[in-house]
Queue: 4 jobs
Job 1
Amino acid sequence: GQNIDQPTEMTATEGAIVQINCTYQTSGFNGLFWYQQHAGEAPTFLSYNVLDGLEEKGRFSSFLSRSKGYSYLLLKELQMKDSASYLCAVLDSNYQLIWGAGTKLIIKP
Amino acid sequence: ETGVTQTPRHLVMGMTNKKSLKCEQHLGHNAMYWYKQSAKKPLELMFVYNFKEQTENNSVPSRFSPECPNSSHLFLHLHTLQPEDSALYLCASSQDWGDRSYEQYFGPGTRLTVT
């Protein structure tokens, strides 16, 4: 079966750095997405990786290793507004998005 | 604002009621999706429409009936639902089907409670 694993919940301190991991086992791979979802709001696109390596976008970076079936989202200089759920999703060989259950990130002052 | 709107935002219905959820996208996209989001579970893809044609129906019970009259509008008709159908129903759109164009834009969702 297809599976996406990510931690259920993480806690970090304002101003710090946090890394949210995602491992996947899917039938084929056509890219990996990270989305942010604040409570009661729509998920919004953060990043897309299809090649190995690190993609940096401001305070957020996303890393992919296809051989290891692994990705992480790195958030730097954490702000209170970064408290949200972070969803990892993989596009499989049929171009179907397989979603993880999300990681709830709690930022403390 | 993501360019995708959904109404109503909240809905409470009895098991014998019939109601409809509406989604509209103002992005000129060709693909639209219905998802179910339950607490602490992955997003469940229910239906996909590409150029108004249904391309995916992931074993969704017949009490959920989608309708896509044009590429900008998507409906989800609900009838004789069960309490376990209570969830957040999200609509999304993307430019097209496949690779990077799969970046999806989500609406704010309809919080459905079945009593």
Note: The first strand of chain B starts at residue 4 and ends at 7.
Job 2
Amino acid sequence: GAGVSQTPSNKVTEKGKYVELRCDPISGHTALYWYRQSLGQGPEFLIYFQGTGAADDSGLPNDRFFAVRPEGSVSTLKIQRTERGDSAVYLCASSLRGNNSPLHFGNGTRLTVT
Amino acid sequence: AQSVTQPDIHITVSEGASLELRCNYSYGATPYLFWYVQSPGQGLQLLLKYFSGDTLVQGIKGFEAEFKRSQSSFNLRKPSVHWSDAAEYFCAVGAGQAGTALIFGKGTTLSVSS
């Protein structure tokens, strides 16, 4: 079956611009996670959704970052006033129930802020 | 809060030789432990997981890992490495509670020489 899909695969934007990154989880997975992976680092947790609500957003670095999942399926990560330090690969993962069910990752969106 | 340390940034192993990748975790209770692999241009793939029970767990692609509570370790092993195993390997720990996300180590890059 289809895995986790992330679009776009690459995004180049200018400093100060607004970007949206999309994640389509595996059908039926109630839990959805956003991670950020910088070069040479492991994935860094950003936010976790259980259904439509953000169960844990403690990893969002500041108020420029926001994510939604209005219908409990597709999620959008939104970054306002982008900075060069936001450049990274943004990974989305879904799992059947959360609660440490194995995560299924997408291939990520590589964001470059120039 | 939980944390993960992967002491080795880069390891080179000859094809056919055995492999051990180290992982140490910090968590006050019994952790949920995972190993993921990331090949170039691909998403993270689950190799194996430990939740409870037998401390030696078997995973895909011939990998295994052993949970040692006394050493706070969850090292990944493979008896005979293949050139296709060259990738980046991440250890992750979960707190075992609903609504908590996995915390990843910084990863170990495995190179395989012929």
Note: Chain A touches chain B at residues 3-4, 33, 35, 40-45, 48, 50, 55-56, 59, 91, 93, 98-100, 102-108 (CB under 8 Å).
Job 3
Amino acid sequence: GQNIDQPTEMTATEGAIVQINCTYQTSGFNGLFWYQQHAGEAPTFLSYNVLDGLEEKGRFSSFLSRSKGYSYLLLKELQMKDSASYLCAGMDSNYQLIWGAGTKLIIKP
Amino acid sequence: AAGVIQSPRHLIKEKRETATLKCYPIPRHDTVYWYQQGPGQDPQFLISFYEKMQSDKGSIPDRFSAQQFSDYHSELNMSSLELGDSALYFCASSLGARGGGDADTQYFGPGTRLTVL
């Protein structure tokens, strides 16, 4: 079956770094996506990885290891506005997104 | 940059009524996806369209139907509404190249919050 696993909740301190892990099992693989979602709002696209390695975009970076079925989202210099849910989603062979349940990130001052 | 537009943003209906949600994709995007999201849940894929044809079907109830029109906008029609249909309904669009890469990235609209009383 298809499955995405990520922690339910994480807490970090403003200004610090946090890494949100995601493991995936999909039927075929056409990439791994990370989205940010604030409560009651739409998911916002953060990053896409299809090849192994690290993709850096400002304060956010995303890593993929296809052999391990593993990805992480790294957030640096955390700001209060980064408090949100972070959704990991794998794209299967039919180009459908298989979603994780999301990681709720709580930032404390 | 233009984003996905959804209307209405909020909708209140009674049980057994019907509702129509509209979605206008990002210009040049020919693929539209509909999702339902309950509180604290991940988005549940309902249905998608590519070039005005249904491309994939997820957990869409038989009471719901959808279509994509010649201008690529899409409508989700919901009938015999039930209390459990109360949720956020998101539409997303992509270039839909299905060749992998950024062209398959889905961009979400702001959502329609449907409340069934």
Note: The mean pLDDT of chain A is 96.
Job 4
Amino acid sequence: DSGVTQTPKHLITATGQRVTLRCSPRSGDLSVYWYQQSLDQGLQFLIQYYNGEERAKGNILERFSAQQFPDLHSELNLSSLELGDSALYFCASGGASGNEQFFGPGTRLTVL
Amino acid sequence: GEDVEQSLFLSVREGDSSVINCTYTDSSSTYLYWYKQEPGAGLQLLTYIFSNMDMKQDQRLTVLLNKKDKHLSLRIADTQTGDSAIYFCAEGDTGRRALTFGSGTRLQVQP
């Protein structure tokens, strides 16, 4: 158990819908990273937050957004969902040094 | 841009050593990581090495880094059936905190 929690574990929805994925980092970690794992793209970095502020952006679509709250949990919002958004979405947390990233169990999103 | 390459599949017999290889392109990589993913699970950080090191050993795991050739390997001694999983190599640096992952190597351990 990495100490990073993600909810829900599974999410099934329809095209055009909007969903919110939630992540709670390990106690004491200020950074939250979001990654997408799909069969065709592999593991891709989406976005990073550090202590409530956006720190880095990767291959995140404009339909996707994220935020980190004062209690350091983070939410990833996916809107106007398409079939191709079906993937595993991982959250990772890291400390101030940034050397290590600990991954949560992931949320499996299925868009029908 | 950054790129990390791994072979897709490795099959070994229980008790043998496994060696999983990885190459990367980014010269500014500061840290190189190995993660393990079991079916239906998240990524478990196994170990990581700083780019100024050549080797790191942690129980059954040995990481070798050839910075000149940008080649990283993970050796698992006395491989067990519980080691069957997908192993991901990843690289990162102090400036770019996000990790760039390889496509993963599926390790199959035969009894």
Note: The mean pLDDT of chain B is 92.
